[in-house]
Amino acid sequence: MLAPRPVVRSENGLWALERVLQRNGFPLVAGTDEAGRGACAGPLVVAACILPTGRRGEVPGLNDSKLMTERAREAAYEQVLARALSWSVVVVPSAEVDRCGLHVMNVRAMRQAVTRLQPAPSYVLTDGFPVGGLPAPGLAVWKGDRVAACVAAASVLAKVTRDRMMVELHETWPEYDFRRHKGYVTPEHTAALDEHGPCPSHRFSYVNVRSRVRPARDGGDLRQTVAMDERTRAFA
Fold first, then answer.
1. Other CB atoms within 10 Å distance of the CB of residue 226
2. Contact at 8 Å (CB) between 24 and 6?
């Protein structure tokens, strides 16, 4: 007799996929997601998270972090930290994104974030694309942060961590208004790049940034010149 096929029950909502995995021998389901993939400034931040089974793992208001208000994300962030069995965050500086490439660093950071989890997961859900070399079997889930609670929790951890870092960068580089757009490409950010050129926190491998690098001049900003030299050498 064939074993019954696992059934994902829609009434479980965001927790449905984890519930079916837990019922079929994978009690510790980890999710991983990133923030900052589409930005042209600031770090790439990747998080991984294992939520407990049952009611304790049901974070109120949890959703894809991009669909939540800042206030709701902050509240969910605190709840995830309080409830998670294990979580980790990996920060990839913009220089590393430039040196190795965005997708390479994204996959590498996801692998690292999952490996850091203790207890180790018995199954891993990744958002959007498969990640090899994980310590457990895994599944890439399209729009995972909208259909799997552990991935949504990871997206909140990554997003809140990165947003806070961008607010700190705003204090150093207020002319770019990182506090508002968080390093993503907006008309205001583009106008600031046109006026000031890039700063060391920008990703110099990106065309819209590299095209605005200004020739070094006597008395110019040496920090920007050094950052440009280091980060564009491989792309010349």
1. 12
2. yes
Amino acid (one-letter) located at 213: V
- Domains within the chain, CATH numbers bracketed: 10-164 (3.30.420.10), 170-235 (no CATH)
Express each pLDDT in 137-187 by its tens digit: 999 998 888 889 999 999 999 999 999 999 999 999 999 999 999 999 999
pTM: 0.86
**Closest to 128 (Cα-Cα) out of 120, 140, 117:** 140
The DSSP annotation for 160-223 comes to: HHHHHHHHHHHHH-GGGTHHHHTT---HHHHHHHHHH---TTB-TTSHHHHTTPPPP-TT--HH
pLDDT in tens, 17-58: 999 999 999 999 999 999 999 999 999 999 999 999 888 889
Packed helices 70-83 and 149-172: angle between N→C axes, nearest 10 degrees: 120
Q: Which two tokens stand for residue 215?
A: 């020739």
- Collect all residues with Cβ–Cβ distance below 8 Å to 153 and sequence separation of at least 6: 31, 49, 51, 59, 62, 76, 80, 84, 87
- 80 in helix, strand or coil? helix
Distance, in Å, from the CA atom of 32 to the CA atom of 16, rounded to the nearest integer, reads 17
The closest alpha carbon to 108, from 127, 131, 77, belongs to 131
